[in-house]
Amino acid sequence: MSDIKYKVVVGLEIHVHLCTRTKMFCSCALEYGAQANSRVCPVCLGMPGSLPVMNKKAYEYAVMAGMALNCEIARFTKWDRKNYYYPDLPKNYQISQYDLPLALNGFIEIPLESGQTKRIRIRRAHLEEDAGKNLHVGNFSQVDLNRAGTPLLEIVTEPDMNSAAEVRLLATELQRIVRYLGVSEADMQKGHMRFEPNVNLTVTKNGKEYKTPIVEVKNLNSFRALDRSIEYEIRRQLDDFLESGRVMEMGNKSTRGWDDANQVTVLQREKEEAHDYRYFPEPDLVPVEIGEQWLEDIQSRICELPLKKQMRFVSEYGLSDYDAGVLTADRATAELFDEAVKLGADPKRACNIITQDYQRIANERRCTITELITADRIAEQSQMLVLGDISSTASATISQLVTESPDLSLHEIAVKHNLIQKSDTAELERIVEQVLSENAAAVEDVKSGGKKSGKARGFLLGQVMQKTKGQANPKVVSEILGRKLG
Ligand code: ZN
Ligand code: MN
């Protein structure tokens, strides 16, 4: 076989539902799971004579996302009609932004496994409306228009990703950003985020470089489908190139769909160009002009973004990149942790308490961590661990008890359930003396310094723990034993 190398090139289009109360151009409620066609009006049904009115909140959410993606925000935008026929689109056109998107030329930093970041450029982001949903039942199709008119932010990246893993990281980071901003729930199961990767390969064969035709995979609604469809396209395009030698030419871009049952992509259309949509300016809506004051106002509502927070937790609190990533996956949890540390919690211990104990309890009870525990209580719990008042086993027990005893302090809970560790040196010293006098043989073994020494020391420690019903602070006991036995 000849000498072949290849590089994967992927750009991504992402559609994100914005979580406004009402739709993009009418006052119908956005409600997932409502009875079919119960959240509709003449505007979103596309009735003749009805007029759209822009949802200002949706525009602000989109601008906010554009700012978080480091984009230039357009001071002037207009709306355009993208014309096509499909049963889920009763107007026969979608209102979108064609040549004047509201955000341009940004970037997103994605956290790589190595702890480094990679910058992926954002070409543009614009606002449009979603279509309804076709349901296929037996031999018939039905259409539910509750979703028609949902504000949809379309984000287009440059082809800067070079593996399925990088695409996945970008998708996850974007999900984290829009959730932090509060502009989308970004719930994959509810179709709040949909992906369309553009995939092709740069193949080097016998020192010469070829590009395979670009394929756009349409409408992927899970991270898994995104990942698998890209992996599949990489293999398919490489095989196709080796068999047919087909390379990229003008107009041989194609779109494919993902067949989840068979885990393959399927050809849909050979080519599709902007002029097929006959874009023209929407005559029923006025253009949007956004002034300095309005921009500043939106900017001021942007919180600390997840990656920045994650990196701050590493640099400021000395957490590992992994721990910081777990804590910042969700904004409320990250803020709870941050506040606990500001109230005096030891960062590493607070991180363990939150991500291990309370996360597990929250999962069991199907609630959020912030519903279970407050920052000051986490600070108190971590302090008790630092001071040796409780062991880590006792701490886990306290985590269980604390949610049921809102009126007691953690210390009171620990006392009530006999979880306070004995660190009183005088008292422990007395118990150690007693254990040593009762176990002369073990004491001899330790002092001999031979093979049995370590084991005998462990035995003596165990005896002390037993006498104190496990409540002695093992660290203090070890120190006393060390002092007495040399
Ligand atoms: Zn409506
Ligand atoms: Mn779109």
Overall description:
- 40% of the residues lie in helices and 21% in strands.
- It is elongated and about 95 Å long.
- It contains 16 helices and 17 strands.
- The protein is of the alpha+beta class and 486 residues long.
- It has 3 domains: 12-199 and 268-296, no CATH class; 306-416, no CATH class; 425-485, Arc Repressor Mutant, subunit A (Orthogonal Bundle).
- It binds zinc ion (ZN) and manganese (II) ion.
Name some characteristics of this structure.
binds zinc ion; 17 strands; 16 helices; alpha+beta; single chain; 3 domains; Arc Repressor Mutant, subunit A; binds manganese (II) ion; 486 residues; ten-stranded mixed sheet
- % residues in beta strands: 15-25%
Major beta-sheet overview: 10 strands, mixed
Annotation, overall tally of beta strands: 17
Shape: elongated
- Average pLDDT figure: 93
- Termini, distance in Å? 71 Å
Q: How many domains make up the coordinates? A: 3
Helix percent reads 40-55%
Rg from Cα: 30 Å
Q: Ions, cofactors, ligands: which are bound?
A: zinc ion, manganese (II) ion
By secondary-structure content and strand pairing, the structural class works out as: alpha+beta
| Helical run tally | 16
**Poorly predicted spans:** none
